[in-house]
Amino acid sequence: MGLTAMNRAMAGFKVGRPELAQPRPPPPPFISQGGPQRPPFFAQMRPMMPRAPGSFKELVEQRAADLGVPFVPQPNRFREGKPVFWFGKVSVYIDQNVIFALNLGTNTWEPMGLDHLLQVCQ
Predict the structure, then answer these.
(1) Predicted TM-score (pTM) of this structure
(2) Residue 39, in any domain of the structure
(3) 40 occurs within a structural domain
């Protein structure tokens, strides 16, 4: 079939699929038959809910923002290949959905729950 189309084109005939040559007409407008009128589809949509955090780091970021606690990266500071952040005045990093906070008394990194971290920062 492809070779036939190429030969016809070389001979000067128009080649193409007739169903693609002309666009389809638009569908007829919706006309109510006296029944209850429904609003257009977009008018029925509910407002979007705030997006849920996609990662644990985003959850930590959101909780900090909700309470007005700064959560910012410390420039050029990494622990086990992970960026270190200031969570208020506490140095933290996140590894596999676990928050590790620097204990200044022992100078060690210790796992800490988010709720406990929020209490420490307030």
Answers:
(1) 0.57
(2) no
(3) no
Does residue 32 belong to any structural domain of this protein?
Answer: no
The span from the CA of 103 to the CA of 89, in Å, is 12
C-alpha closest to that of 73 among 65, 84, 63: 84
- Cβ atoms 122, 67 nearer than 8 A: yes
Number of domains, the chain: 1
| Helices within the chain (DSSP H only) | 2-10, 18-21, 41-44, 56-67, 114-121
- pLDDT per residue as tens digits for the range 70-117: 999 999 999 999 999 999 999 999 999 999 999 999 999 999 999 999
Asked if 94 and 60 count as a contact pair (C-beta separation under 8 A), the reply is yes
